[in-house]
Automatic annotation (TrEMBL), chain A:
This is ABC transporter permease. Belongs to the MlaE permease family. Its main location: membrane. The keyword Nucleus does not apply. Keywords: Membrane, Transmembrane, Transmembrane helix, Transport. The keyword Transmembrane applies. InterPro entries: ABC_MlaE_roteobac (IPR003453), Permease_MalE (IPR030802). The chain crosses the membrane at residues 17-36, 57-77, 154-179, 199-222, 234-258. It is found in: Membrane. One of its GO terms (molecular function) is phospholipid transporter activity. One of its GO terms (cellular component) is ATP-binding cassette (ABC) transporter complex. It is a multi-pass membrane protein.
Automatic annotation (TrEMBL), chain B:
Pfam families: ABC_tran (PF00005). The lineage of its organism: Bacteria, Bacillati, Saganbacteria. InterPro entries: AAA+_ATPase (IPR003593), ABC_transporter-like_ATP-bd (IPR003439), ABC_transporter-like_CS (IPR017871), P-loop_NTPase (IPR027417). This is ABC transporter ATP-binding protein. SUPFAM superfamilies: P-loop containing nucleoside triphosphate hydrolases. Residues 2-238 form the ABC transporter domain. Residues 222-243 are annotated as: Disordered. It comes from Candidatus Saganbacteria bacterium CG08_land_8_20_14_0_20_45_16. GO terms for molecular function: ATP binding; ATP hydrolysis activity. It comes from the Bacteria. PROSITE patterns: ABC_TRANSPORTER_1, ABC_TRANSPORTER_2. Keywords: ATP-binding, Nucleotide-binding, Transport.
Amino acid sequence: MPYEKFLEQLGQKVEDIFAGFGYVTILFLKVLANLFQGKMSVKLTLEQMVKIGVESLPLALTTSAFVGMVFAMQIAGEFTKFGAGKFVGGVMAIAMARELGPAITGIVVAARVAAAITAEIGTMKVTEQIDALQALGATVEKYLVIPRFIATTIMLPLLTVLTILTGFWGSYLVAVYIIKINPTQYLDNAQYMLRTWDIWCGLIKTAFFGMIIAIIACYRGLNTKGGAKGVGEATTSSVVTTLIALFIVNYFLSVLFFK
Amino acid sequence: MIKLENLTKHFGSKKVLEAVNLTISDGQAISIIGPSGCGKSTLLKLLIKLDQPTSGKIFIDQQDVNALDEEALIGLRKKIGMIFQTSALFDSMTVFENVAFALREHTNKKEGEVNEIVKAKLEMVELEGTGDLMPAELSGGMQRRVCIARALAFDPRIILYDEPTTGLDPITAVTIENLMIKLGRQLKATSIVVTHVLQTVFRTSERIYFLADGKLIDLGSPQEAQSSNDPRVKTFITGGLNP
Ligand SMILES: Nc1ncnc2c1ncn2[C@@H]1O[C@H](COP(=O)(O)OP(=O)(O)OP(=O)(O)O)[C@@H](O)[C@H]1O
Ligand SMILES: [Mg+2]
């Protein structure tokens, strides 16, 4: 019966997703408990912050510059047709601060950093380095998860400030020099329409993205099974899972903040 | 004292350990031999709760290992040194940092003092001057010795050796055996060696057990083990050949 097999596999998948959700939640609570007891290493956390910045910055800035440029081209092009060119600056500023900047940073870090975290921890798992760590009396939470958790939670908003700025200036260049919108008007309108609150909400969203990325990536790494192939599979699945989680969480946070 | 009570471990339908009972008194050096895949590594991992038994209990110094909270478990693990079959060195750290790991994790010793201890441990395993190398730059035998040095950094009272000499050339193997004997005397540590290298067993242990089909058979002293009448043990010791 092909249907039965299909349903069985689907059921298994759904079951796995719920089990995974449960484990991720447990890991998250453990991390919080450890943090409240002050169990963290400043040195390891700083190392991770530097690593995350270096890994993500070039890609995040390039991506946001071009996304800003292409959006300006589309929006400014259409808006000027209706004589609404003076609103482009504000629309771009709001779009960048509320959604595009956070999304670009989230996606870039999920792709680069979640993959790196899962691959590193997964390799440690299959080569028994995780066992060795525990045998020596260290805990996985303090040594591996918390430094990454804090680093992504702090670094995402910082990176997002830069992606928002870069994306906005990208849009400015295209709107002003190619579509020929008045530069003063562009900046004035941006200043008029964008509230500080928009920027804060965008940044707070990315702090949540950072937590999600670290927890899912660490969880995937720690549950890697079966050699190099297992590490590859865990890494791919880690990126896919974090991306899906980011988009879903982003929607609900946006509804909460901006509606 | 280490005490296993009806220790049972299944992986799915695979029964690796079936109600194993064993008592090891302080300072005793025992070996567990048995064919590949019989569950030797699994047994050692259960002892420090790197895995959970299906049923049964493990007591180390009267403490039920699987009932310990995190704090107490860490305390227990600090007393135990584990030498991994795969060495399992931290590949992102130098040899020095590997050996210094437990000291930095659990003590506030000054760097100078950590330096001294690490140097002494590396000398003990005859690897002076390798501190700055990365594990990937070492041979398998050297990695095994770094793993021993790392496990010893805290002067453990219990040492668990998983295949300490398997796959090494005879000279390195003898070096490691001599080290194991020396450690037993110096630290007065309790030790469990699991291996299928018989020479190591006969040289380093007071008592030998044979693990097969999930059961542990007491073979007594090395001399007694060599004259065992159990056909499985005989086959194992002679490699299936009739002497
Ligand atoms: N995590 C695991 N999941 C499923 N099966 C496992 C797992 N770990 C070990 N096993 C199985 O348990 C059995 C015992 O494994 P173990 O590694 O303890 O053997 P061993 O006696 O140390 O063998 P060797 O001498 O080759 O090192 C093997 O058949 C192995 O396939
Ligand atoms: Mg083994």
